[in-house]
Amino acid sequence: MLTFAVRRLVLAIPTLFFISFVIFMLLQLAPGDPMAQVPLTVPPEVKEKMRQALGLGEPVLVQYWKWLVQVFWTEPKIFIDWLTRDSLLLGWLPDTQLYQGELRVISWQTRSPVMDIVLQRLPQTLWVVGLAYVVGVLIALPIGIYSAYRQYSVFDQAGTFVTMIGFSIPPFFTGPLLIVIFSVYLGWFPSIYDTTHVVNDWASFKVQIYQMVMPVMVLALQTTAQLSRYMRASMLDNLNQDYVRTARAKGLSEAVVVMVHVLRNSMIPVVTVIALGVPAIFGGAIITENVFKVNGIGQLLLTALFANDLPMVMTLTFIFAMLIVLFNLIADILYGLLDPRIRYD
Q1: CA distance linking residue 229 with residue 231, whole number of Å
Q2: I need a surface site. Which of 71, 152, 190, 244 has the fewest CB within 10 A?
Q3: What GO terms fall under cellular component here (predicted)?
Q4: Domains annotated on the chain, with CATH
Q5: Which residues, in sequence order, are CB contacts of 178 under 8 Å at separation 6+?
């Protein structure tokens, strides 16, 4: 297993390089000028110096190489300093554009380091998007298991109806609908997520929970709808297998048969959906974060797209690509843990 993981990690390096090159070249074809937002009162010679400082006057391949050095060499060193809370590598001051004399990835929109902005927005995304995904998985798995075990029952039909709604209704409709019902008419929850709210006591913690309820509900509904159908289909496929009849014939209790033997084999295809859904939900949270004004990664990406901030878009897109590669590896490793028949020799 360790050899397989190391081999996959080594293979992921050229894969990520190729993905980054494709993303970079596609974004270079995007129309627009990052200097378009500069006030008209700025003299042309000043604009030209600003353009050169942003690296816009250099060839595309030179820009790509500089971006690679910044992302794979400069930013990891800064991240180590940030984790250790100490300048072990020396030369770094937070919120500065240089590190040991090396230029960092700079946002064209804010003129500040991209990774500093990402780290500022990341906690909000983890609070909302991460919790929504965990809630969605914890709700979807029991629903899928029980729906398969009680196939065509009232619970199964109700679950099918709810999941079809979750599949059919997009977040840009579900979000405003919840705001109208629970914020405007009932007044139970705030319609706007306050990113400046600080949790320091029980009262502030309740306020945080209240403002998280609706965005978490919107995102968890999609996750629950998808995973519960996969779980139900996988359970139904295994409930009729010969090994299940053999386990029952040996006198094992129904709980052991379903929750140990059937569930373990049924989780193999579901693990893929869960693992690959982690990076997907970060991208899918763009609409939800904008509906509820959550100052997270999704809103940051959309703002960067509107502002034609290519370094920001490039970095965020590459982070999503890294998450996909990483969770693909995690899913493959979990296969071997769930099914002893799978070997990576």
Answers
A1: 5
A2: 152
A3: plasma membrane
A4: 35-112 (no CATH), 119-338 (1.10.3720.10)
A5: 214, 217, 218
